[in-house]
Amino acid sequence: MLIPRQQVPTLTVETLGSGTFDLAGDGADFATLVVFYRGLHCPICATYLKELGRLTPDFAEKGVKTIAISSDEKDRAQQMADKVGHQALRFGYGLPLTVAREWGLYVSTSRGTTSIGIEEPALFSEPGVFLMKGDGSLYFASVQTMPFVRPHFQEMIGALDFVQKNDYPARGEYTGAV
User: Fold this and answer.
1) Can you give the CATH number for the domain in which 114 is found?
2) Is the distance from CB of 172 to CB of 3 less than 8 angstroms?
3) Domain membership flag for residue 98
């Protein structure tokens, strides 16, 4: 389990048009928002990432860099990026499922062709949203077993105003006896 205020696992993936993404060297002024998505086969992911793409400039104004990452291969990631249609949003691809597990993501098996007629990969990770401070520590995390009911990016932007103004610490850091 990842713990707020502690270092997150290494995260390095290739991107579409941005070279290699390495979280440790991302250089965000405040934080990096990593959104793990299920893959091209997921219509809910496409809608979710369109919202992230639309709001990426707003995150940038608050010192937050964004990236969407899946275990899809490059061609499928490119198709998703084309579908999303926001150039400012970086797309990473080829996430090893061993790394997905290190991040606490759930892994699902294929159920064949989806409602939009795209074949699911044999194995893929379920969604997760993580905000890491520039020092590599976890600030916020949301991990899901299903594609439904994800954190709202507009709410996150509003929360960042409060967080930055009040130097609000990451919560959930206690690991002692209860």
Assistant:
1) 3.40.30.10
2) yes
3) yes
* Closest C-alpha to 108, from 121, 120, 124, 93: 124
Does residue 91 sit within a domain?
Answer: yes
Secondary structure E strands in 12-164: 12-15, 20-22, 31-36, 64-69, 90-93, 107-109, 123-125, 128-133, 138-143
Q: What tens digit of pLDDT does each residue of 89-109 get?
A: 999 999 999 999 999 999 999
Burial grade of 79 (CB within 10 A; 0-12, 13-18, 19 or more): middle
Within-domain flag for 155: yes
Verdict on whether the full-model pTM lies above 0.90: yes
Q: How many domains does the chain have?
A: 1
- For 65-81, write each residue's pLDDT tens digit: 999 999 999 999 999 99
| Residue 63 structural domain | 12-18+28-166
φ/ψ (deg, to 5) at 165: -65, -35
- Between CA 49 and CA 8 the distance in angstroms is 23
